[in-house]
Amino acid sequence: MNAFITGGSRGIGRAIVLKYIQEGWGVAFTYAGNKAMAEETLSLARAQKPGCEIRAYAMELKNADDVEKVCDQAIRDFKTVTTVVNSAATLRNGAAVMMSTEDWNEVIAVDLSGPFYVDRSFLMHMIANRKGRLIHLSSLAAGGSSGQVNYAAAKAGLDGLSQTLAKEYGAKGITSNVITVGYVPTDMTKDHMSSQLQAFWLEHCPAHRVGTPEEIAGLAYYLSTDPAAFISGENIRVVAGLTYAP
Description:
By secondary structure, this protein is of the alpha/beta class. It has helices at about 10-20, 35-50, 65-80, 100-130, 150-170, 185-190, 195-205, 215-225; strands at about 1-5, 25-30, 55-60, 85, 130-140, 175-180, 235-240.
C-alpha cells in the first residue's frame, strides 16, 4: 500500500508520513521548497524503518501543471497509490478590510485549489483500481476566524470539495473525508498564531491542552484502512471538544 502526502517535510504532514512508514506503507511526500527539511523527514523515516520505500518531491501546489506532473511521477514510481492526504497549507493573516488581493489569492490557491489539483490528478488512477482514500486537513478556522478570512474561506471550501468527491466517486470505491484540526503546535502555528489565540485555546478547550501531530496522523491512517471503508463525506473533528475559533 502506498500513500501520497502533501506538506510532508514538517509538522503534521511529517507526522503523517512517519505514521504510514511505521505501518509498512510506501510514501511519496511533497515539499514546497525547503529541501533540508524534506531530507530530514527522509532520514527520520529510514531510521524508523530501514529499507522503507519513501520519496520526496518538490511541488508547487498552486500550479496545476506542476501538481499533475509530480502526481503522475509518483504513480510511475510507486505503481499504485491508494491514499492521498492533503496536509500542506499556508497562512497570510490579516483583517479583511486590509487584506491584499495577493494574500487572498495565495492562500486560496495553496489551501483550496491545491488539494483539488491533487485529488483530480489521482482520481482516474483510483477509479481504475476501484479503490482510493482522499483525506483533507482542515481547521476550526473553517467556521470563521478573526484575522484569517482567506484561510477560513479556503478551509470551509474543503468541506464542499470533499463531500462532492464522496458523492461522485463513492460507487467507484473511493472515500473522501475532512479532518478538522484544533490547535496543534507546529512551525506554522508558532509563526502565525498569536499568544492571545494560544491562551484562548488553553482556557476554553475542555481538555485544557493542545493536540499533537501524532494524534492527527493516527486518524489519517485509520481513514486509509479497510475498517474505515464506510466512512465517507464526513468532517471529523480532532479538537478535544472546542467547537469554535474566536
